[in-house]
Design goal:
The complex is a heterodimer.
Chain A: H1 2-39, E1 51-53, E2 59-65, H2 70-85, E3 90-96, H3 103-115, H4 119-128, H5 130-133, H6 155-161, H7 165-180, E4 188-191, E5 194-195, H8 201-215
Parallel strand pairs in A: 2-3
Antiparallel strand pairs in A: 1-3, 2-4, 4-5
Chain B: H1 2-6, H2 8-12, H3 15-45, H4 52-72, H5 79-102, H6 131-153
Classes of the chains: A alpha+beta, B mainly alpha.
Chain lengths: ~220, ~160
């Protein structure tokens, strides 16, 4: 059956060519994205974006997140652990992507909390109570107030600040940047501008460790 | 047993004719495979969202990847009859798509209003090679080769 073998070999060659092509394309694109990031970070990070970690760190993780996204909540301690494993070498930036209806209001609270220097503390409280204020992926932002009392925020100021046009503009800008960077789901990570080859924690860990190795 | 599966028409045609027909259908299958993997590369690897007309062309192209080998192992010239409707309809859709991209069909006749507009040009190699052109060429070639294969295998 020579013909059968020919078909079989052709199929294998084509599939292998596709996979190799995809890997090469992705790695080239990641390198190009990394270089573009070093030239101009503006779509990845905005001056108002909350950040955590050593300001001089050479590895920067940009995370597009939604406070009502349960995977974002699950990733939060993992990203923190990655940072703890490489102390002072990683800086984390948060970007606002309200993909759930109602998330925009929670993000306004968080952006207003950033004005008080308490973004991360507030985010942790919001994530911890996520199941209570966002049952079955139906965010009820008015319930969030019940869970951020212990963060130490000036609640009156927060209520005032979150309605400021500059806060709404930040969320709009972040959504525009998400569109530019083709972020369609959360959490989406960019490590020194490089997207993950495929989505997942192991992939994030690998990319971060590669960047740490390359930078230090 | 082998003769039973091959059926009567082939017993009349010479081995040489059969081999050349088989090679033509095989070429069609390779074209269909490359087209399928290429379109998947555009959408899944490069991240281009397919517009609705691309989906209709995929509906015509992808079945060829499966149906042609069925008629190749062992060879059955009737596979051409089953495959031609796909390649002909695909050619028409790709032709329509090219006219749309080229601006020969007015805006208001565009069949897609949501998602990606079909007039969006993702690639433009050498100034004239677009995805609909590649698709139209693949469908046309497949159609021509299939007809040739059918003619050659007839007694």
């Amino acid at each position: 059956m020579k013909q059968k073998n020919l078909v079989l070999v052709s199929a294998i060659v084509l599939v292998v060519a596709f996979i190799v092509g995809a890997i090469v394309y992705r790695s080239q694109k990641a390198d190009a994205a990394g270089q573009a990031y070093q030239r101009d970070k503006s779509t990845y990070v905005r001056p108002y974006s909350p950040s955590h970690g050593n300001p001089a760190a050479k590895v920067e993780i940009v995370e597009f997140f939604d406070p009502a996204c349960d995977t974002c909540k699950d990733f939060y301690p993992l990203v923190r652990k990655l940072m703890a494993d490489h102390p002072d070498k990683i800086r984390l930036y948060a970007r606002y992507t309200p993909f759930h209806p109602g998330s925009d209001i929670v993000l306004k609270m968080l952006a207003a909390a950033e004005k008080q220097g308490k973004f991360w503390e507030t985010l942790e409280a919001v994530f911890a109570a996520q199941a209570d204020w966002s049952p079955q992926h139906q965010p009820r932002p008015e319930l969030v107030w019940n869970y951020i009392g212990n963060v130490g925020l000036d609640i009156a100021k927060l209520r005032h600040d979150m309605e400021l046009p500059e806060i709404a503009n930040m969320i709009q800008q972040d959504m525009a940047d998400a569109k530019t960077l083709k972020v369609t789901a959360t959490p989406e990570f960019f490590v020194n501008g490089k997207p993950l080859p495929t989505w997942g924690y192991e992939q994030l860990k690998t990319v971060v460790e590669d960047e740490v190795k390359a930078a230090y | 047993m082998d003769a039973f599966w091959r059926g009567p028409p082939l017993m009349n045609s010479s081995v040489g004719q059969q081999n050349s027909s088989w090679a033509l259908v095989f070429a069609c299958w390779l074209l269909a495979c490359v087209s399928m993997l290429g379109s998947l590369f555009f959408s899944e690897v490069m991240g281009y969202t397919p517009c609705i007309l691309c989906w209709y062309q995929r509906i015509c192209m992808y079945p060829l990847v499966l149906i042609l080998p069925v008629g190749m192992l062992p060879f059955d010239r009737n596979v051409v009859r089953y495959a031609l409707p796909f390649s002909v309809v695909g050619t028409l859709v790709a032709g329509f798509h090219m006219l749309l991209v080229g601006g020969y069909i007015p805006e208001n006749m565009k069949p897609c209003t949501q998602g990606v507009p079909c007039s969006e040009v993702y690639i433009n190699w050498f100034g004239f090679v677009t995805i609909p052109l590649l698709s139209a060429l693949a469908f046309l070639l497949i159609t021509a080769l299939l007809i040739l294969a059918y003619r050659r295998s007839s007694t």
